[in-house]
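Q: For a teaching handout, I want to show students what a protein-ligand complex looks like in token form. Below are the inputs, and the small molecule is flavin-adenine dinucleotide. Please produce the holo structure.
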Amino acid sequence: MPLTAPDPIAVIGAGPAGTMCARRLHEAGLPVQIFDKGRGIGGRTSVRRHEALRFDHGAPFFTVRHPAIRERLEAWIEMGAVAEWIAKIAWVKDNDTRPARPGPRYVGVPGMNALATHLAEGLTIQTGVRVQTLARGQEGWRFRDANEREYGPFSTVVLTMPAPQAVPLLASAPRLKAKVREIEMLPCIATMLAFDDTLAPNYDAAFFANGSLSWAARNSSKPGRPSAEAWVLHAAPDWSREHSLLPREEIADRLLADSKAQLRPICGEFPKPSFQRSHVWALARAREPLEEGYLFDAELALGVAGDWCCGNRVEGGLLSGLSVAEGLLNETSRMD
Ligand SMILES: Cc1cc2nc3c(=O)[nH]c(=O)nc-3n(C[C@H](O)[C@H](O)[C@H](O)COP(=O)(O)OP(=O)(O)OC[C@H]3O[C@@H](n4cnc5c(N)ncnc54)[C@H](O)[C@@H]3O)c2cc1C
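A: Here is the structure, written as tokens, with flavin-adenine dinucleotide included.
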């Protein structure tokens, strides 16, 4: 038994990658602390609230293919954090509308962030901490947040934010920095809509192969959501780039006007929304994700993970977080 407790591992970012990584390290008995700049956790799976309305304005659902994630899925479903979304989903290209490939597709319950919340349950987590500088001294890693507060020492740090947000924190790790800065991330504008009356759409959701929209979904068709008629539209990357500097309050009207024809086979003509709001995700997904799973510098005890290391998507984030934790555990056992 050591006389002093070992320094904890800091996981920066509480999206799917960070919470999965921290959960695995905690399961292995290592002390771990999570930090996130957001008010809540979940990252790009977070939920936007307005009065009684709830919108999954980032990732609308996730799929599970890898055995390591499939192994855990059953328990998440049993705990009620995740459920299958059984929905009528269309695939639309020009004038061709057909049923999309069948699922299964999964959602967090009652919102997409429920999975990250479940993974972080019982762990030490601090939100509202935007890590701004990261440095390694003789005692290990320390960092400062945007309010100049200092945290540490930590034995190891794992960064799990979108690649461009990790770059400024990698000054002490030029080899990792060079790799991370290669990743370009594309924007996505999400527009949230609510209606006073219940609609009778032909589909609950649709993927669009071309045009202004890439995705539309009736949020209220997912399990565990409020019944109020609520929709989320995702603009295609080009449309998002061209319109992201418009005043926020103009974006929804413009997107609705530009996507009228695309939406017609899904839900006919939308009536006037009782609520509309847009959110610009500047870093929604990597143009070309790495396929390395994660990056780790054993000498520096510094790891980098996130969906952009592992094929984009929620499952990629989970897998990247799990893999960096396994890599770190292997390294720890090698040194014992
Ligand atoms: C519009 C949109 C649609 C999507 N559609 C799908 C889909 O259909 N299916 C699917 O599977 N996935 C989808 N995704 C992708 C999915 O959301 C991501 O793959 C997943 O969230 C990645 O998890 P992550 O933990 O790697 O990163 P994130 O979820 O981005 O989490 C990173 C965390 O790091 C925090 N952070 C960043 N910088 C700092 C800092 N300096 N200090 C402290 N904290 C910091 C952030 O606040 C955030 O909470 C979509 C995403 C968007 C935006």
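A: Two things your students might notice: The CA atoms of residues 253 and 273 lie 10 Å apart. DSSP finds nine helices and 20 strands in the chain.
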